[in-house]
């Protein structure tokens, strides 16, 4: 452990401060495709019983009409967060008629691109904007990519932690409390970039995919069976260049060295035309095709593994919120759905994520120059495609080759003091138990989720889609055999009804035309200082 990390841990471990570590906030967003009983993508509209995808606070859709997104409140204890997520799953499963929630991140057999439904949000100005944005995504990246699902883990430390750490820093730090907090979250993001390859090794769960996913594109995958492609040592094809990819975004690699440069890189991208998109234009025969012809239509289009975030006000854009009020939390975006788990994530993973993120927040985090930033990207991409390869070498922090297993064990050793501190705060041993479970995966790559996926497919002689459908059915059985109690069921039904009423009111009371609305939305980003 570094001297800085040791000092910060001692400060937070003092009796007067230890309880602050029980006040971190955790939120989860889980995406999952709706599929029919044969595992084919559902072409039905968003079920009315689930409410309005535009205005429901917990149940919405992501890019496709068939891609549900479940959103929990932010809770101090991940156990409560997972209980919230479980309740949403059980309600949704109870309302689906002849459909399942798809178990893994990668989709099964998909229809032709034209038949994949883009998410609909009604006739309000904001609802139409969300739909046109998704039309733009389909135009730019194809609809197939919109059918990939993941888990997003939102994390923040108690606000009181930051002034405590700032007071302990080198005397003379004249930054405002807000700027210091933002700088520390940006430093967390830098360390996340350095070490997130470890998360892909430990929790990656997409080593295989349905053969039609690539739509005939060239690839270097191996054939598992007639219907399945894979890589033998892969951990997460979802996070490889086969999943989320964009030539337009290839030059957009914020290294999180400070908040202003991060904001400026995104502001520039949403204001800079990209010639291939400009050739297409924003409209054809009067119909909107995309919101604009810039590198990014909006800042959320940037495919990053972690995002610094701030809760936005109504009508406010994400980078406006960051610019005005600084960073409030981080959103981890690289996590695969574990197909063996009904929720796609469990408490052991959440406890480890807390250890990992607290380490990233407290450990020294020097700025990343271009070479080191590229090294982080290279390590990440190497692990998602070859993470379980025996003797795999990565580019270490000293720029020298280091074996993945050696570096992973070194990091887990450095995490030990973090786990002990979190256990002391929570009065449990769950963080240390999770740490020990991850050591087991490093010692035995066959115990990782990605290896387990391939092993079960081989043992059962299943294609990827057959494997995923079997687990989807099992999870559906679990949710339906554990129905919500009458009070919880009524609460979700009321939320659904209220969201539909809210959407209707929005559509009835809005003023203005759509073209003007899009123009104002686009202009709002240009007012930020350069």
From TrEMBL:
Pfam families xrefs: Glu_cys_ligase
EC number: 6.3.2.2
Keyword set, alphabetical order: ATP-binding, Glutathione biosynthesis, Ligase, Nucleotide-binding
Biological pathway: Sulfur metabolism; glutathione biosynthesis; glutathione from L-cysteine and L-glutamate: step 1/2
Ranges that cross the membrane: none
GO BP annotation list: glutathione biosynthetic process
Chain ranges of the Glutamate--cysteine ligase domain: 11-383
Keyword Ligase assigned: yes
GO molecular function: ATP binding; glutamate-cysteine ligase activity; metal ion binding
Region (Disordered): 429-448
Domain of life: Bacteria
Catalytic reaction(s) noted: L-cysteine + L-glutamate + ATP = gamma-L-glutamyl-L-cysteine + ADP + phosphate + H(+)
Assigned GO CC terms: cytosol
SUPFAM superfamilies the record matches: Glutamine synthetase/guanido kinase (SSF55931)
Coiled-coil regions listed: none
PANTHER family linked: GLUTAMATE--CYSTEINE LIGASE
UniProt record similarity statement: Belongs to the glutamate--cysteine ligase type 1 family. Type 1 subfamily.
Listed name of the protein: Glutamate--cysteine ligase
Record organism: Pseudomonas kuykendallii
Organism classification: Bacteria, Pseudomonadati, Pseudomonadota, Gammaproteobacteria, Pseudomonadales
């Amino acid at each position: 452990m570094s001297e800085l990390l040791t000092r910060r841990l001692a400060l937070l471990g003092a009796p007067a401060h230890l309880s602050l570590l029980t006040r971190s906030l955790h939120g989860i967003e889980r995406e999952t495709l709706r599929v029919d009983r044969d595992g084919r993508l559902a072409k039905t509209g968003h079920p009315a019983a689930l409410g309005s995808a535009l205005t429901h606070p917990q149940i919405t859709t992501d890019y496709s009409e068939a891609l549900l997104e479940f959103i929990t409140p932010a809770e101090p204890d991940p156990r409560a967060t997972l209980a919230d997520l479980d309740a949403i799953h059980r309600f949704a499963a109870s309302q689906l008629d002849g459909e399942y929630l798809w178990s893994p991140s990668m989709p099964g057999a998909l229809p032709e691109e034209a038949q994949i439904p883009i998410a609909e949000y009604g006739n309000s100005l904001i609802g139409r904007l969300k739909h046109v944005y998704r039309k733009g995504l389909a135009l730019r990246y194809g609809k197939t990519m919109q059918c990939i699902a993941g888990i997003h883990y939102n994390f923040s430390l108690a606000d009181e932690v930051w002034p405590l750490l700032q007071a302990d820093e080198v005397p003379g730090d004249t930054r405002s409390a807000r700027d210091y907090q933002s700088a520390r979250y940006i430093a967390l993001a830098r360390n996340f970039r350095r070490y997130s390859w470890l998360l892909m090794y430990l929790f990656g769960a997409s080593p295989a995919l349905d053969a039609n996913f690539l739509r005939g594109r060239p690839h270097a995958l191996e054939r598992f069976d007639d219907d399945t492609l894979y890589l033998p040592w892969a951990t997460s094809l979802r996070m490889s260049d086969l999943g989320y990819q964009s030539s337009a975004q290839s030059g957009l690699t914020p290294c999180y060295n400070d908040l202003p440069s991060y904001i400026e890189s995104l502001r520039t991208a949403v204001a800079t035309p990209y010639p291939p998109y400009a050739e297409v234009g924003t409209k054809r025969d009067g119909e909107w095709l995309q919101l604009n012809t810039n590198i990014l239509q909006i800042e959320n289009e940037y495919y990053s593994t972690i995002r610094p975030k701030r809760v936005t006000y109504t009508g406010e854009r994400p980078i406006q919120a960051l610019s005005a009020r600084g960073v409030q939390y981080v959103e981890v975006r690289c996590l695969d759905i574990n197909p063996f788990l009904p929720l796609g994530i469990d408490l052991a993973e959440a406890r480890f994520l807390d250890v990992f993120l607290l380490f990233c927040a407290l450990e020294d985090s020097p700025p990343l120059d271009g070479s080191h930033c590229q090294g982080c990207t290279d390590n990440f991409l190497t692990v998602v495609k070859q993470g379980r390869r025996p003797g795999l070498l990565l580019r270490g922090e000293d720029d020298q080759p280091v074996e993945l297993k050696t570096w992973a064990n070194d990091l887990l050793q450095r995490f030990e003091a973090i786990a002990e501190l979190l256990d002391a705060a929570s009065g449990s041993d769950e963080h240390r138990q999770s740490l020990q479970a991850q050591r087991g995966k490093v010692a035995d790559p066959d115990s990782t989720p990605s290896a387990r996926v391939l092993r079960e497919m081989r043992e059962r002689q299943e294609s990827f889609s057959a494997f995923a459908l079997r687990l989807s059915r099992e999870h559906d059985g679990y949710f339906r055999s554990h129905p919500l109690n009458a009070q919880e069921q009524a609460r979700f039904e009321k939320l659904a009804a209220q969201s539909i009423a809210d959407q209707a009111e929005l559509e009835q009371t809005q003023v203005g035309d759509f073209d003007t609305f899009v123009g104002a939305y686009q202009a709002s980003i240009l007012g930020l200082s350069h």
